[in-house]
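[SOLVED] Need 3D model of a three-part complex

Original post:
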Amino acid sequence: MFLHYLDLSWRSFKRTPLVSFLMVLAIAIGIGVTMTSLSVYHMMSADPIPQKSSQLYSVQLQIMDEGSTWWTKDNLPMQLTYQDAVNLNKAEAGGKRVTMVRTGFSVYLDSDTVKPFIGQARLTTPDFFDMFNLSFLYGGVWSQQQEATAAPVVVISKKLNDKLFAGENSVGKIIYLDDASYEVVGVMDDWNITTKYYDLNNGAFNKTEQLYLPFSLLKARELENWGNTNGWKHEKTNTFNDKLNSELVWLQFWVELKTPAEKQAYEDFLMAYMQEQQKRGRFNREKLEAKLRDVNEWMEYNNVVSEDNEILVGLSFMFLAVCLANILGLLLAKFLRRAPEVGVRRALGASKRQIFFQHIVEVAMLGFLGGIFGVILAQVGLLGVRQSYSYYQSLATMDLTMLLSAPVIAISTCVIAGLYPAWLVCKTNPAIYLKSQ
Amino acid sequence: MLTMNNISKVYQTDMVQTHALRDFNLHVEEGEFIAVTGPSGSGKTTFLNIAGMLEPFSEGQYLLDGIDVGGLNDNQRADLRNQKIGFIFQGFNLIPDLNLYENIEVPLRYRGIKAAERKRRIEQCLEQVGLASRAKHLPQQLSGGQQQRVAIARALAGEPRFLLADEPTGNLDSLMARQVMELLEQINRDGATIVMVTHDPELARRAPRNIQVVDGQLADFTLYQGTQNLKAAGV
Amino acid sequence: MLEIKPIFHALCRSKVGAILLLIQIAITTAIVSNAAFIIQDRISYLSQETGYPEQDIFIFNVMMFGQDTSPSQQYELDEAMLRQIPGVVDAAYSSTTPLSGSGSSSDFSLKPAPQESKSARSSYMFIDEHGINTYGVNLIAGRNYSEDEVIVTENYDELSKVIVVSKSLSDELFPDGNGLGQSIYFGDIPLKIIGIVDVMKGPWLKDSRPDNVALIPFIKAGSNARFVVRTEPGQRQSVMNRVEEAMLKNYNKRVISRIRGLDEDKEQYMAEDTLMMRMLIVLITILVLVTALGIFGLTLFNISKRTKQIGTRRALGARKSAIISYFLVENAMICSVGLVIGMIAAMYLGQLLMQHFSIAQLDVRYVIATASAVFIMSLLAVLAPAKRAANISPSIATRTI
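Solution:
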């Protein structure tokens, strides 16, 4: 029966090609516009590490004196001081822990094969790779021993390995970063995330770093922070050591806590830590405050999805509503004109139900066609977005979820629009149309 | 009232020229009641359309009440229709979205008659066709005969001197047809000139003067009625 | 001869089509007025005066890895070399870049920290005596630094004593307009205002104080540096093409990166807003087209449904213009109701946007302008089908179908 309805729908489509085309066009435009903004929204807000996003926590501490304010909605600084980041990493509390900061080097080899270039780097404690589910093509992470001694070792990205060593196993080879040599200990596999959730400071959708080095090198080599440094009080920080001992916030700290109990325990630990620090004259405030946010909460807190995009998604859905009203009007026109034919069908024994489903199938077919064309339009739209804003390169794309949801949205929209006309046409009294004309 | 001299109407399609009317000549005096008969496809409707200025003609001359219709533009023809002609259609052609009152009001509005005067005339016409109590009804709430009476009331409301009726009883049963016919005769007695197209010889016989259209020409001319009527017809 | 009453009655008897049209017009009005307001807001943001001849300025980064030269001396040599390149007007060291979204900011106070006093937040740049000329900004009071007021150091042993500030910063700290010659404090470091520049935007155009800029004559020479170069109009590209080679020729153990025009930096920073503006423009254009098509289609359908009645009206003496005006009036009636609802919806939507997002209060004029435009658009959309309706032959009336 479904196939029969489909056949009837196709015939009906061909009988009024202009109206049918207009309807498909209206759906396609509505879906195209909606899917364009929705795809970007979807990619922006997508969970970057679904397996453990609820077990990884970014840590915030309220280090400011009573009365000082920060620009975040809960008044907490986004990053940690060097002292706290190091202390928390050292303390025997919580699961895997990562202390890190962004930096960069001029990168070159001993030979002249590659022109020196700027490489983005991350100084991190070794749990980083395990914590964020990273895998290695060659070699692996540096040892705790190497971390402790600030050994000149480096893990490089696949892309950098391709550039420097033509993709060969480069473990044990030497690269130069600024004025010093480093031994490659590992080559990471591709890391495909669109949102750089582990450090949202300098653009949430920037690429991941190419170089990863022991965090201890920061102090040992006095490396510069290429991320954000924020102060909340006046301090003299002329030397590197001043900076390490200051209350400036510039490091990221993540901890892995597998159960709510672990999380609770860690929150207690943070409280105890701050109380202990108070004895040393820090955390000058009545109420101590620390916050653990998991990956999705952290992205939400950092407004990863831009306001503009939320507005666009909202407006797009209103746009879809206009298209829906448009289709509804055309469907009414089309179906009601067919009332005499329906009268004949009813007289020949078709039930109301059958008539209703015949029309719903027809509407769904229009929705499907509209959805397909809508996806094409959305691709054009996304291409336009990528052309206009290269930063959205990896965001302005449709993943499988979006590709599949386009026709689903189109069909359900159309079926909703079609309910009323289909009901109207199936409740028509057959007698009226058989008598006249 | 109406004079047609050598009127021709040619329908041009891609391949064929069809002569719907050929050298058609007719003179109708004021106050006549003429029935136009003829087989289907003979040109009856074309004659009616041209007489009512619903369609242009290809050649010849047509004078309506002394006015040469051939020289008029679209707006002038519309005004002339509005002022001089009352139409009664086979399908009644009432506007389904409007109630009886509003339907009758349509031509009066086009003439720009003031609301009070419109009201007076509409009520009078509805009275005349016996539907005064139904002014607020919609056409589909009435029977065929009642609808046709409304259509007649609409034609009369403009107080036209010339009524064109196209198969006015075609969609009605015999009882209702008789009522409508009586109404038309009454209107004729009141002074209006009526040209009625019909295929029903019974009905045609009731008209004082009959003409027959065959193959686009005035083929026959028969008198069924007595000499007074002949005189009135000016023959 | 307006037939408002019978048209209204006729409409009431075929409500659904009218309601659908009304909904479309209402939503369209709501969306378009808000989108137009946001677009206008973005356009004025994107086209704001920055104070720089952006087309003639370019910037590049230097990262030295060689240890066999002193950065401070090297930068002196580099600057001198850059100024010698034909087509270059001036070149300077600059710690950060304006309009780029990346820079430094601090509070500047009337008293030294930690004393409490009036303060103003401002972006700041470390530049040398060529900075003001290179950026091409307008010094409206006081003077530029002299060469020996510029502190060049590899540590913080010596600090600057003077400062040039933007008019906006000076006026915020000294509302009486007498900032020139006063001292302000960068932490506990006193800096005397020796010059005031006119409009000069800082790094963050979206900041609440984009015009507060402090220019401090200080160069902390390290392995990283940034140079800014202003060229003669039209010469920029050719100088940009040569600069990397020239810099490496001066000293080659370093990387020259991100050679870009000031306008490119700005475009990058504004790209998201540009994108938003473009998407909104596309959105409302298509939306208006879809709505116009909807009106067009529905009118065509209405006409085909009423062919017979139009023919009858013509037969009863309606002029063509009467038929056209019938459809125009009918549309205008639906449209007016839709517009009233749409205008209320627009204000409500504007209210919602203002509550949830950083968007200003919707200006009523946008709603009125949009409503007028939608009204005209709808009349235009009806005009063509209405003309077609007027051409329906009155002889339809005598045809039995």
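Edit: Confidence is low (pLDDT under 50) at residues 224-235 of chain B.
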